[in-house]
Write a structure and sequence with these properties.
Cathepsin D, subunit A, domain 1; 3 domains; alpha+beta; elongated
Length: about 290
């Protein structure tokens, strides 16, 4: 695009430009044309490239800016990030000053807000947070099952409880063994006091079914009770999605509140009986989980 075309477009938006303004626009165009705006991303052998900001700077960012802080660092450094994920057999990483300061093999030990703030205090900077693509791999595949948008189809479901600070929330979750992790509505959790969204919390963007969504990752207790009233709990991190009702997770079932993945089932080790005749799920605990 020539300088004359750009100046014409500026006039359309701002009105008549004087000679000094036109020279300023032309000079800016020349600078941009002579500047390399997209340097080559580092190879897997190069160091991580990116500057961490402070906690206060992160808190002041808008929603899209918080996500972009992590997203752009990940896109620019993906070979390096992927190499670290593989070397550490990790599902998530936190990086400060080109160093991995925290990581985990599962979301069950993903840092809560207190641990995150300790990292910020210790380093003086807000970490980049990266997740393995495996976290978001979803293969869509006596609790009554849930009707879907397709007539005659139902989604297997079971009852679970979520526990926050002195708060207990019961819900019926759609069971999806094709999903590794658990997904739910962050606004719904906040309304019931399970989470308390704060400006310092890690906000990321991902995609499901080709549609983008923003999410937080919060640790919490998840509880499951069987037909004999025996219950088991586990600590895990839940992917808490913004704008849940318009997200891809409600495309098949608009009334869905929670999508339960297999990582929690491996932890709690229930025996699930899917009764396709009665269209319900029965939970049984046979022995103490290993």
């Amino acid at each position: 695009m020539t300088a004359e075309i750009v100046i014409d477009k500026v006039r359309e938006k701002l009105g008549t430009l004087n000679a000094e303004s036109e020279r300023a626009v032309a000079a800016a165009i020349e600078i941009l044309q002579n500047t390399t705006l997209a340097p080559k991303p580092p190879s897997s052998e190069e160091k991580f490239a990116g500057r961490n900001i402070t906690l206060e700077e992160y808190k002041a960012l808008p929603r899209e800016g918080k996500s972009r802080y992590h997203d752009e660092a990940e896109a620019f450094n993906w070979p390096w990030v992927e190499k670290q994920l593989n070397a550490l057999n990790a599902k998530w990483l936190m990086v400060v000053d080109s160093q991995v300061v925290s990581h985990g093999a599962t979301l069950q030990n993903f840092p809560g807000r207190e641990e995150l703030l300790k990292i910020c205090e210790k380093t003086g900077k807000y970490p980049f947070a990266f997740f393995s693509p495996r976290v978001f791999a979803i293969e869509e595949l006596s609790t009554r099952w849930h009707l879907t948008k397709d007539g005659g189809d139902l989604y297997p479901a079971l009852s679970i409880a979520l526990r926050g600070d002195n708060t207990h929330l019961q819900t019926e979750a759609d069971l999806d063994t094709g999903a590794e992790e658990c997904y739910t509505d962050v606004e719904w959790l906040a309304q019931h006091g399970i989470v308390n969204v704060q400006p310092e919390d890690i906000l990321r963007m991902s995609r499901h079914l080709g549609q983008p969504f923003f999410y937080f990752t919060y640790p919490m207790q998840l509880e499951m009770t069987d037909a004999t009233e025996k219950s088991r709990q586990c600590q895990t991190a839940i992917i808490c999605v913004n704008d849940w009702r318009s997200s891809p997770f409600t495309a098949i079932n608009p009334t869905r509140t929670f999508l339960l993945g297999r990582s929690v089932l491996f932890k709690l080790q229930p025996r699930l009986v899917l009764d396709f005749d009665a269209r319900c799920t029965e939970v049984q605990f046979k022995m103490a989980p290993s």
